[in-house]
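INFO  loader      accepted 1 record
INFO  loader      residues=73
INFO  predictor   begin
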Amino acid sequence: MTTTVKNKIDSLVSSPSHSRQYIVEQLKQMLFDARAESTALAKSTGIEDDGQDNDLRLIELALQDQGVDPATS
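INFO  predictor   done
INFO  writer      dumping C-alpha cells
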C-alpha cells in the first residue's frame, strides 16, 4: 500500500490547481483514515501496531512539508 499512498501524495502536492489548504485537508484525512485502518487491523488480528507503518510516516512527512505538525492533526 505504501506505493499507492506515495503516488496519492505526489499527485496531490504536485497539482498546481490545489491550494495549500486543500492539500493539508486531504493529507489530514489520509492520515485519519490510515490511523483508523491501522487500529482496525490491530484489533482484528490481535497484533499491536509497532509504529513502523510506512503509510502513516509518508503522510506525516507530507504534512510536515506543508508546515503542519502531524501530532496536532
